[in-house]
């Protein structure tokens, strides 16, 4: 948070210095027409278009982060349900299932999550552990109807876990388009640059206006950047859903 604040203030101060230099070196002459009507129209259009790009980027990264949270919660919940359902399986199958689900969750929390923070996709080992979990719940054909029903529910939860894991892997590479990043950066620069088109004779007023606009744009772009990293940064989705159900993972 301190680093973000420092970046916002620093860029705003640079913009303020540029305004001061402009007023010192190129002041408006007494007979010079500021052409406020043209500057206002162009600045308004640039501002409106930039607001659309900014809104699109914000909605995109927010929806992506919400999807990440949903996938992680669904995966952790399915693993928890499988462990609970193991109590209704035969003793041997129940022990295998509990051991397999504990091993899978431990791998996700201790191995996959640190790698995802660095942008590395989960490896094949997680899928191998999931296959082991799928095989662990097999019960003999002579199982009771209750055990058969429990197995069917366990298989349904395994399907949910599999789907959620695939979604989590996809989320890692589902980041903001470079085109939108280009629009955010260039649009922000243009929006601030057109503030220099106004012939504001009171330099202090001009400084405050440019500082405020620059700080707000910089903060919003940094917010998009943080939200664009679903497993790292200030707003990262962590492994809390897993550790909540599996405290010793």
Mean pLDDT: 84
Radius of gyration: 28 Å
* Poorly predicted tracts of residues: none
Helix/strand order, N-terminal first: HHHHHHHH
What is the share of helical residues?
over 70%
**Beta strand %:** under 5%
Number of helices: 8
Largest sheet: none
Give the strand tally.
Answer: 0
Number of domains: 1
For the termini, the CA-CA separation is 30 Å
Question: Rough shape?
Answer: rod-shaped
Structural class: mainly alpha
What distinguishing features does this structure have?
249 residues, mainly alpha, 8 helices, 0% strand, rod-shaped, transmembrane, DUF4239 domain-containing protein, transmembrane helix, membrane, DUF4239
Short description:
Keywords: Membrane, Transmembrane, Transmembrane helix. By secondary structure, the chain is mostly helical.
Write structural notes for this entry.
The chain is mainly alpha-helical and 249 residues long. It has one domain (2-26, 34-245). Helix content is 76%, strand content 0%. It is built from eight helices and no strands. The protein has helices at residues 2-25, 36-85, 91-117, 124-136, 145-173, 178-193, 203-227, 240-245. Helix 2 (36-85) runs antiparallel to helix 3 (91-117) and helix 6 packs antiparallel against helix 7 (203-227).
Task: List strands and helices in order, with pairings.
Layout: H1 2-25, H2 36-85, H3 91-117, H4 124-136, H5 145-173, H6 178-193, H7 203-227, H8 240-245
Helix pairs in contact: 1-7, 2-3, 2-5, 2-6, 2-7, 3-4, 6-7
